What does this fold into?
Amino acid sequence: MIRVMGVDKTFLPGTPDARPLLRDFNLSIGSGEFVILLGANGAGKSTLFHLLAGTESVDRGQIWLDGLDVTARTEPQRAQWISRVFQDPRQGSAAALTLEENLALALRRGLPRRLKGFHHALSRAVATVKELGMGLESRLQDPMQLFSGGQRQAVTLLMATALRPKILLLDEHTAALDPHAEATILALTERTIAAQGLTALMITHNLSHALRYGTRLIMLRGGKIALDIRGEEKKALRLEELYAKFGAEERT
It folds into this structure.
């Protein structure tokens, strides 16, 4: 599904402040994997997301998605395969538009303006709002700016997965929420990924979440993969062990 091959990325190349972010980076992720990304600030997590989404280009190397070389493709060109949810709940929806209007925009993402069956798809998406269990089905005509952070992030996740993307990038998408909203969004995230069989990557700094969620755990350090575990090995990992591994990274 995802292949990152020999990728280099340097911040401010050719200047005195030049800093390598990824160095000869290689990664393969299979279809349906739910990967948790850990690492200290500057380890390369967000850089990897930027390169996958096409918001930044590689200095060297290749990126393949679903058997297609997309290295030279732009962010809009990759939008048909990739959806992304950011940390700020305000970033994933248009504040002045209603909930229903935001859903309509999500369903038109990367597709022709006149889409056959659009109204039927919108009806299904609106029906899905009820399944969130937040009572938002009675607020379809309310502008998003009136919703709480947790409500907006729930709608953003719904919008990001409305067209069943091949890849879902979750960029610390619960870090700005209160504990109750965070738990709600994480449960919704896990349920959505499983129901749609999505290939997903989630950046987090919460080590408990790193153990609780996902089928694979990858820790980055200095633009390289320092830890990569999955399956029974991941299930057997204890929090104190992960703290020790992460602490060693912080001290490096």
Notes: The CA atoms of residues 3 and 28 lie 5 Å apart. The domain at 2-251 is CATH 3.40.50.300 (Rossmann fold). The longest strand covers residues 19-29.
